[in-house]
Specification:
single chain, 106 residues, 73% helix
Length: 106
């Protein structure tokens, strides 16, 4: 039973620490922060898949929690890459190559 309380304590500590760190990041840096941390989402996804694979045949609760972890981890990773792609699109030039700046035909 101590292991369960230790795991809950670590989870709560990580959640509060993460909230405090992210809340202090300026809004303008949230998208680069998310794009830079996509690898963490992949690690979470792999960890959830391992936890799901280690669930015993009669451990329904572990399978449900593992499935939810895989589902949310995959969604989080995919969303991070979508946001990164949108962010990179904002920095691309809107001018087509070979066009002049006046808009008149040459």
């Amino acid at each position: 039973m101590i292991d369960g309380f230790l795991a809950l304590y670590l989870f709560m500590l990580a959640a509060f620490t993460g909230h405090e760190i992210i809340s202090r990041v300026p809004v303008i840096l949230h998208t680069p922060l998310m794009s830079g941390s996509n690898f963490v989402h992949g690690i979470v996804l792999v960890g959830a898949m391992v936890a799901l694979g280690e669930a015993g045949p009669d451990d329904t609760v572990a399978k449900v929690i593992g499935f939810i972890g895989v589902f949310l981890g995959a969604g989080n990773a995919a969303g991070g890459y979508v946001v990164t792609e949108r962010m990179l699109e904002m920095f691309k030039s809107s001018k087509k190559p070979g066009s002049n700046s006046t808009g008149a035909k040459a």
